[in-house]
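Listing S7. Sequence submitted for prediction.
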Amino acid sequence: MKKRLAIIGSKTFKQSTVTSLIEEAKKKFDTVIFVPINELTIQNINGKTSVMYKTQNLLNFEAIYPRISSRDMLLGEALLKAIEKSKAYCPVNIESYQITNHKFYTVQKLTNEGIIGIPSTLFLSPKYADYAIMETGYPFVMKLISGFAGKGVVLINNKEQMESILDAIHLFEEFICTQKFIKGKNYDIRCYVIGDYVIAVKRTSRKGEWRANVSKGGSAELINPTPEMLNLAKKSAKILGTDICAVDLMDNNKKWVVIEVNFMPGPFKKYLGTTIIQEWVRLISNKVESKESNQIN
């Protein structure tokens, strides 16, 4: 049987990542197509759902890998619901998509399952900010729920700065998540969970920048994960029910805690080449072959 893979991209997809994904996937799959999510049509006719791209129903493919962000939420949820009802293998699911795109809910979900995360508070109205700061003190990290890649994340050093930023945010009625700021750390650990395999990467912030995001000028290097890192990463992915994600960790008083979980992590090609992409493709290919083998037997 021929293997076909459909990669569904965000409306704001990164071309270099997509190009490398397609190149690697063609080594394992007979047919590989890439489709931005806004070019799909999701239909429900006579009780049958289809995800159409031109004349092709992508639900007939053996595998579908959605790489979509919070900006794609409306179509993204409908897409993932449709995939769940199909026979196609998909390494992610609607629950992991919904939870990881809500930074506070991610921490809450994992904490309820025994995973230690950064102390966090969620609020909408600025008048509740003082209550949140009672838990963290200054400085603290303020995150927009809809932020990603280090965007919408601000380090608040004092009350004046907080009030100024809250005034601006309140105009757009954005939900805000505050988290404790761990002082003296210019790095964090990103654990790429790919099935049962974990690749650990140390991200270090550039000089003068407190965020370790590579998109903000930080650097990345492969490291050997500790047993604690492996356990946290694998358990977090299992709780969310996803085969592919990235779990970001930070050292807090000599104990690793979860900062957040990423549904659509970048592969850090500048520093890691196609290492991560190759493993994504390997997992998806192996899952399809395993599924086909089980059907034959």
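Caption to Listing S7: primary sequence and predicted structure tokens for the chain studied. The mean pLDDT is 86. The chain has three domains: 4-92, 99-104+106-114+184-262, 119-180.
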